[in-house]
Specification:
The protein has helices at residues 11-22, 28-44, 48-65, 72-85, 89-105, 109-118, 120-126, 129-145, 149-165, 169-185, 189-206, 212-225, 229-242, 249-265, 269-285, 293-306, 310-318, 332-349, 352-381, 386-394, 398-437, 447-463, 478-485, 487-504, 528-545, 572-589; strands at residues 445-446, 468-475, 510-513, 518-524, 559-565, 594-596. The chain has 601 residues and is mainly alpha-helical. Among the domains are: 1-117, Alpha Horseshoe (Serine Threonine Protein Phosphatase 5, Tetratricopeptide repeat), CATH 1.25.40; 400-437; 445-596, 2-Layer Sandwich (Alpha-Beta Plaits). Helix 8 (129-145) packs parallel to helix 10 (169-185) and helix 10 runs antiparallel to helix 11. The protein is elongated.
């Protein structure tokens, strides 16, 4: 796609189109009306870019609403040609999303996967965050449908990280729901609950309405499977009471059947029976989808069992279709729930062997489903869900598993807190070590650093046949300055000299606070003459910058220094001793003197 600058772009019009596009999830009708008006305005002003961009949005909304007339591929290619003419890379990438949707609806899933996978890097570079998440979500859906669970999980987790990083609440919910449904399907109820609770909280906080029924239904199902029926019942009643207009007949029936199950788990058998009879009557009267027949039968069987009508419960259970082979099931969670009901029937009959066999089959199905999910997560999420693998091996009952998950969560929090404290402690130790090595007044390293550093520098200088010099610097008449101007003035003088040493010393030279009024300057690669020239510059700068001004020829500030260059026979003590002797000779000569020590052969 040509990425040259956009042609004939009206910034205000494009901004309005983008705002309408952002409404496509939460308010599709409003988005469609706005895009139609903006498309007409773009045509009236001959703005080809805006017209093409608006047509992209209208095509997507029409496909989702099922109102597209004519040949959608022909419409798409016409819009794509318009985007190419306007050099609109964003419009082109959005059309690739729509093209993949159309291929999927035609059953050409592999073609859709190839299209999205091949263009993924370019799409993520050119699309804004919300569209990039739509792209990744669609690719993950198709990969899952193709049985590529590992690849789908990798794509969705990538999308989840992007959504949270770029603060895209609607798209974050979309990805969290996909991940949660997958974990729920493969019996990973703990992970599913975490994702669904995060999505539900985000929807309520942000005022989002899209996907609300899907999230609530799956969250209630997960809580029910976690033996949290009161939480599930409260959520279902909230949805049925507060947003009745959001339900069509199918959704309402599904929620009512779930509420029957939650009431039964909570011991409200009479209330469950009354609601169940209404559901059964509604199923016949409204000729609802046969897809709800099995959940309704299961709910009736569970209700009969709770009422003590064992024979009727057995007869109702026998009406269900044979259970899928657990190794081939596409919905292990449904098998898990159904086997739980069968287990309770056997226990009520007193058939302990059949109960044991059913319990074993149920547990094996649970282990198999979770093992398949873990294998799919191995590439990117193995560590994150390692605690659940332990749960598989222990094959705990549902109530003990819930308690274990709580314990594992607390351990994880404790580990995280401990890690944070250890990191903080390590940082504190590093800061304390640095503080111990540095002089608090001047900020230079203390004398002890020289004991560690000088032997290495001497060895390096000899190995590389390069010079090495050391200078000992002593502030002249510091005691007199302290008496006449105060100790604060003396301290400021020492800080000024330390600053001069830092800014004038060439890399990798190192300045140190050697004693009360004495500094040391280590000069790798500098001979004695070069060191003397450097010290002379420092002397002049020290006198120029000093806050204490001379009142006479014998007043003012200065320092004296002794310099020693590394000689053949020098060691640590001898080179420091020669520099110290040179400094002593400099002090004997008077103020502001520099003396370079002679070699030792």
């Amino acid at each position: 796609m040509d990425t040259a600058p956009l042609l004939d772009v009206s910034a205000d019009l494009l901004v309005a189109i983008e705002q309408a596009w952002q409404q496509r999830i939460e308010a599709p009708a409003a988005a469609q009306a706005a895009l139609q008006d903006l498309h007409a305005e773009a045509l009236a002003t001959a703005n080809t870019t805006a017209a093409a961009r608006a047509r992209v949005g209208l095509l997507l909304l029409a496909l989702r609403a099922g109102t597209q007339s004519g040949d959608p591929f022909a419409e798409l290619e016409a819009i794509d040609a318009q985007c190419a003419q306007a050099h609109d890379a964003l419009g082109h990438q959005r059309l690739n999303i729509i093209r993949a949707l159309m291929l999927g609806e035609q059953g050409r899933r592999e073609a859709a996967i190839d299209l999205l996978a091949e263009g993924k890097n370019a799409a993520l570079a050119e699309l804004p965050p919300g569209d990039a998440l739509l792209y990744l979500n669609l690719l993950g859906n198709y990969l899952l449908e193709a049985g590529q669970i590992s690849a789908a999980l990798g794509i969705w987790y990538e999308g989840l990280e992007r959504a949270r990083a770029y603060d895209q609440p609607a798209e974050t919910v979309m990805v969290e729901l996909n991940l949660a449904v997958l974990h729920l399907r493969y019996c990973d109820f703990g992970s599913a609950a975490l994702l669904l609770e995060a999505a539900w909280s985000r929807m309520k906080t942000q005022g989002l309405t899209a996907y609300r029924l899907v999230c609530a239904g799956n969250l209630a199902t997960t809580w029910l499977l976690q033996d949290r029926p009161e939480d599930a019942a409260r959520l279902l009643r909230e949805m049925l009471d507060e947003v009745p207009a959001a339900f069509d007949a199918f959704d309402r029936q599904f929620f009512e059947i779930m509420l029957v199950q939650t009431d039964l788990r909570c011991g409200r058998v009479q209330e469950a029976r009354a609601r169940l009879d209404l559901c059964r009557a509604r199923q016949v009267a409204q000729q609802l989808d046969a897809q709800l027949g099995a959940p309704l039968t299961l709910a009736n069987c569970e209700c009969l069992l709770a009422e003590g009508r064992l024979e009727a419960a057995q007869a109702e259970f026998a009406r269900l279709a044979p259970l899928e082979d657990a190794s081939q099931s596409v919905d292990p969670a449904s098998n898990y729930e159904r086997l739980g009901l069968e287990l309770r029937l056997h226990e009520a009959q007193g058939n302990l062997r059949a109960a044991w066999l059913t319990s074993r089959q149920r547990q094996e199905g649970l282990v198999r489903a979770l093992r398949e999910l873990r294998a799919a997560e191995h590439l990117g999420r193995q560590v994150r869900y390692q605690c659940f693998r332990t749960e598989l091996e222990q094959r705990m009952l549902r109530d003990s598993r819930v308690r274990s998950e709580g314990a594992l969560a607390r351990i994880t929090d404790a580990h995280r807190e401990l890690g944070a404290r250890l990191t903080a402690l390590e940082g504190l130790q590093m800061r304390l070590k640095e503080m111990a090595l540095r002089d608090p007044l001047t900020g230079l390293y203390r004398r002890r650093v020289l004991a560690d550093l000088l032997p290495r520098e001497i060895a390096t200088a000899r190995d590389q046949s390069r010079p090495l010099s050391i200078a000992l610097i002593d502030v002249d008449q510091l005691s007199r300055i302290n008496q006449e101007h105060g100790f604060a003035a003396g301290d400021e003088l020492l800080r000024e000299l330390a600053h001069i040493i830092r800014i004038l010393a060439p890399s990798p030279a190192l300045g140190l606070r050697y004693a009360d009024e004495e500094f040391c300057l280590l000069l790798p690669g500098v001979d004695g003459a070069g060191a003397a020239q450097l010290l002379a510059r420092m002397q002049n700068e020290f006198q120029r910058r000093s806050s204490i001004r001379a009142n006479s020829a014998n007043d003012g500030v200065s320092f004296s220094a002794g310099i020693a260059e590394l000689a053949v026979k020098d060691g640590v003590d001898s080179i420091i001793g020669r520099a110290d002797l040179a400094q002593y000779r400099a002090k004997l000569r008077g103020r502001a003197q520099l003396v370079v020590a002679g070699g030792t052969g």
